[in-house]
Prior knowledge:
Number of strands: 15
Mean pLDDT: 88
CATH architecture of the largest domain: 3-Layer(aba) Sandwich
Helix content: 25-40%
Structural class: alpha/beta
CATH superfamily of the largest domain: P-loop containing nucleotide triphosphate hydrolases
Low-confidence stretches: 1-6
Largest sheet: 9 strands, mixed
Radius of gyration: 25 Å
CATH topology of the largest domain: Rossmann fold
Strand content: 15-25%
Strand order of the largest sheet: 9-8-10-11-7-12-13-14-15
Amino acid sequence: MNCCRYDRKEEVFRKKLREVRQLLGSQGNLSDNEAELIIEAAVLEDRELKQFHTLDLLWLVDRLFLTTRSRLGILTPLVEDEEVTEIMVNGADNIFVEKNGNIFRYKEHFDSIEELEEVMMNIAGDVRREINELNPIVDARLLDGSRVNGVYKNIAINGPILTIRKFQDEFMRMEDLVKNGTVTDEGAELLKILVACGYNIFLSGGTSSGKTTFLNALAEAIPKEERVIVIEDSMELKLPYIENIVHMECRNSNSSGAGAVDMKQLIKSSLRMRPDRIIVGEVRGGEVLEMLNAFNTGHDGSLSSGHGNSISGMLRRLESMYLMAASLNIESIDRQIAEGIDIMIHLGKLSSGRRRIMEIAELVEYKDGDFKINSLMKLNREEVLEKTGNEIEKVEKIFLKGEQYASKLQELGFIK
């Protein structure tokens, strides 16, 4: 087939696909090994294909097997490739892949819109969700934790859209983030102490800036004896080092429009579970009201994140999200924000593709119509996170937690 035109190659595939589906369907329940043997025989014993190169025949066997037996179809090799970080399907004919920081067009494509839709339905079904004309948008995850967004053809102009953001099987620890330059040793030590001492911390950053990865690494500093409630839209955080943990995930409504459970409900419910800390994976709307209530009602050391272009920009976004849930004046909202959040961390993705902490700041108070932000560390022009020279102003939690933490921060120059 390598000497034939591309459309001839696809014509052979479609013809064999119909034949293979009939063969497999007539055999009843088959194991993958049995199905693969049937597919190999259908291809390698076909006299009409003897003229084709062996490599092309093996490609055909592999493509037929993925299409008929894998729940992810032709995306399976991409999902299994540890170097692939993002898979972007723009309709059946256009698949783009991010690998090692570079984006390129994938050589394969789905045979039809229906084949792509079947993969999307498989993914949604694995986490008890639906995607169809009545529920045209789905946020889900693969069994390995990779984040998935699907948009059905009735609202996507160029066909069904599927985006998969992959996560490593092994979560990154803080020392890994120090090694890859995301944060410095000093910055990592500061943040670990702040988490241990019970500071409420909020992470901001743009898409693919590393918020989930960093939130996972931060949570490792939570004392082992504490009970932690984790709430996410789709489960992404991996926290194996926390023993007393409850992990809850939102749920979409079913085809009858019933059964939906949103983040607001889960946060409210978590307050009755005797949490020491609450981790809200990401806030996007009115659930910020419940998140701040949790931060303000004795659950010291809680963590959350959101999309923002800077610390000040994130604070304004929190205002807007709060207004989605309550008609309060801005000053009342800002006071709630300032009282609930102690530390803001902003992450960014540089033009080189590297992820960095751009700033670590203390949210001191809201006064005279503005937030008082005390910047502790900032990324300099050489792309290194350095101390600003400012000291932490709200030190009560540090000294209450223990002299060892205060001594370390004094040594680092963050408190007197």
